[in-house]
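Q: Protein A?
A:
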Amino acid sequence: MSTKISDLAEKLALTPEQLKAKINELGFEVSPKARVIDNELADLILDELRKKEEELAPEEKKDVAEIYDEMIAEQREREIVRNQRKMTAGKDTRSKKSFKPVETKREIGESIEIPDIIAVKEFSEKTGVNPAKVIGELMKNGILANINQQIDFETAQIIADDLGIKLKRIRSVGGTEEFMAGDISKLIQEDDASALSARPPVVCVMGHVDHGKTRLLDAIRQTNVMGGEAGGITQHIGAYQVEKKGKLITFLDTPGHEAFTAMRARGAKVTDIAILVVASDEGVKPQTIEALNHAKEADVPIIVALTKIDKPEANIDRVKGELSEHGLQPEDWGGKTIIVPVSAVSGTALINTGTLKIMNNVIVGNTYGRIKLMKDHTGKNIRMAGPSTPVLIAGLNETPKSGDILQVVKNERIAREKAEEIALKTQQENESRMSATNQVITQLKANKVLKLVIKADTKGSLEAIKQAISKIKHEEVAVKLIHVGVGTITESDVMMASASKGMVLAFHSDFDSPNVIKTAERENVPVKKYTIIYELLDNIKNVLTGLLEPEVVEVEIGKAQVKQVFLTKKSEMIIGVRVTSGKMKNKAKLRVVRGDAPVGEGVIDSLRKVDEKAHEVGEGNDCGIKFIGNVQVVEGDILEAYAKEEHRKTM
């Protein structure tokens, strides 16, 4: 169904041309010749434009008398402040005067929202308390401030408590550091717990590759569909939702647990329960351990699903023993871990807190935009989505990365500025890191020894890393650990790495202070942080591989038999040959073989086929060669054409 643009314009008291201009301003394209638009778009436009009218209405209704009254009120406030200062100058006002409770028109229990920083005048207006009263309360608490000075939320909270007023902090746009770190916990810590509502639990399925994660989820989907429950379960880019006993459960599929790692490493409290999938025929594998560690660090309850129990090689007791070694003691062995044997013969966003709506301006990592389309897990268009709801959105200027945080902001300008700030800082950090790493590699090539400072979060992690590094061996290069320790990365760590021309690698360890980052930049010391052990080890191997001298390999191009010698000079010969295998290529190196033994070397200076120059001549063809070498070629000799290639060695 569609709506006439003229009818919609009439409702908004606009001309059709003005309405089309406003639609384009909102980010939707409409042709100048268009006469109708989709009903859903019409509803969105109507809501947005009416909302803007309501926001502007109070300002537009102000008349001259109101403006004059405001000016008089401000003048009176200034006089009150001056008089208050004269009365209290040099006096202790904390106990000489008692203040009567302020009478306000607010309902009991109602909270007043204020930002992190607020002017005394604005605080007075929002709370309905006389400015002189506010300034007096501040002075009682040892704070001298005039009506135009600003106070922070904590100070305002103290004053409000004294006055019997409830305050609520307005959610602010997260800082650049929180966005870059993906720290949702910091971004939502200001939420009012009383205003939160229940949400579906989020279950993350993880484990080693090919251990049956997808099959397990397929089984869940099939069971639900056969049960004929409403809503069903539909996979949509790694997100599923299933209804059980009238309640929704959200499942996140994490192939190779990459998405889980990104979320956990960024501190995103997205997952409520982790299902660790372990194949009963293979047991605990490297990615199983990595996933297990991430779940433990996030303090997420773990349920183990033992898959492939129908296979002859399955050994459930052996796997339980391996899990016990990593701290997962089965219930039937006296532990607390639930272990269940089973046999299973565009961009997605997961809403963490609040409500996401169509037309919201958002930041997602270093991308931004306005949400123009939103679909749920069934592919149905929706206008809003609540917590723990997986949705597909459209309207961003670029594709974000997995694990990026999405936050709603007031307008597009704020979204763009914040995204650009994050992008710039990310680029600067990457360039700084690359420059420092390249410099260290250049220095390392002289002595072929990679010197490392290793910091980890626990002694167990540190020992595991040391043991793994000790197994990295090569006759041409070596790794030397100049310092290892548990804890944060300190300036001392950076200076040790600088003195030895090495680098700092950290596992689940952060910087001790901002000064450490500055020291690393000044000393050109690369500092790399990891949350997965094998990524740390891969980086070490990559650096060592760059130090290895390439291996020179001889590659055969072709062979030819000398049929006739036409011209002989000191080091040049014109000879006729027939290509017996491969091909002869211009400028190729030649080896002259007589009988079964090589007798000399040379090069093809030029190549001709009939009377024309040729770049190469294939098998079975005759050609002429201008040979330059250290041997006289005779009829019957075999010429072997070859090339030398450099092959990069690996660890």
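Q: Protein B?
A:
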Amino acid sequence: MLAALWEFGRRRRGLRFWVLYTLKHSPSTGAEIMDEVERMSFGLWRPSPGSIYPLLEQLSKEGVIRKRDDGKYELTEKGREEVESFLNPVFPPFSLQAPRSVDGVLDEISAYVSYLEDLARTKSDSLKPYSSRIKELAERLSKL
């Protein structure tokens, strides 16, 4: 599900989605938002201050968020409504729906395998704690 949400945010609404999604969970500073987006993307993307702070200013002007006295940003009612519209659209984007066929499931598995291959290539130690689980899943798949 998170992968589908990530793809939706990246393609459809970009950083705006991730800022509002982060603030849905707790008020945060711009730096905390950058950290959280990086965490949610498994380290694949960290927005720059040059993209976060102008967006925070724009969202404040739109009345979607407000900056508190402690420097943290929080959602307004309008912002909460926008986040809910992202998460509960009337007609959800196809990418947010569960695969409805064997082909769809295989496409999902292929995408996740590609992600793991990228991790192995760029952060080789990150998969070591999971090696037995990965082997177990590979064995299960090979028996199908």
